[in-house]
Amino acid sequence: MFKRLTVKNFRTLGDVTLELAPYTVIIGQNQAGKSNTLRAMRALFTNATGDDFIRQGQNSCSVELETEEGYIVLWEKTKTTASYTIKHAGEDDRVFTKLAGSVPPRFRKCLAFVA
Questions:
Q1: What letter does residue 49 receive in the DSSP assignment?
Q2: pLDDT digits (tens, 9 = 90+) for 27-62
Q3: Which range marks the domain in which residue 53 is found?
Q4: What φ, ψ does residue 11 adopt, rounded to 5°?
Q5: Is 33 domain-assigned?
Q6: How many CA atoms lie less than 13 Å away from 111 in the CB half-sphere?
Q7: Which of 86, 10, 95, 13 is nearest to 53 (CA)?
Q8: CA of 67: how far to CAs of 4, 50, 111, in Å?
Q9: For the residues of 51-115, what is the DSSP string, one character each?
Q10: Which of 38, 83, 89, 93 is the most buried (most CB within 10 A)?
C-alpha cells in the first residue's frame, strides 16, 4: 500500500507531499494540481519520456513514493536523463540509470506488481 507521495517541479507542482491512506480522494478547485498529481504518479510508474512536464524554469523534476512495506522509490528526470533510486531499510540504495524508457524490474517487484 502507498503511504506518501512527494512531487517536486512537475508541471505546476513546486513541492507537494501527500499522505496517502487505503482510500485517498483528491479534490480541489480548477487549476489546483489534481491532474498533475495523477500525471506525476503515471510518470513514476511508466518512466515517462520527454521534458515537457519539468516545471518551467527548472532543470529537473522528481516523484517519490513511499510504501507501507518500507520501500521508497524516487524517480528523477532531467531534460536528457531519468533515474530510479530504490531504498529499503537494511538494504543498500539501488540506483538505476540508462533505462531506455523502461522501468526497472526491481521497481515493479517492490511495489508488488510482480511476485
A1: -
A2: 999 988 999 999 999 999 999 888 899 999 999 999
A3: 2-110
A4: 50, -115
A5: yes
A6: 18
A7: 10
A8: 7, 27, 8
A9: STTBPTT-SEEEEEEEETTSEEEEEEEESS-EEEEEEETTS--EEE---TT---HHHHHHTTS--
A10: 83
Q: Which of 38, 33, 29 is nearest to 14 (CA)?
A: 33
The residue whose grid cell reads 537494511 is: 90
Q: Which residue has the higher pLDDT, 104 or 47?
A: 47
CB neighbourhood size of 4 (10 A): 14
CA distance 16 to 28: 14
- Domain count along the chain: 1
Return the CATH number at 49: 3.40.50.300
- Is residue 76 in a domain? yes
Grid cell 510482480 — which residue?
114
Is residue 34 included in any domain, yes or no? yes
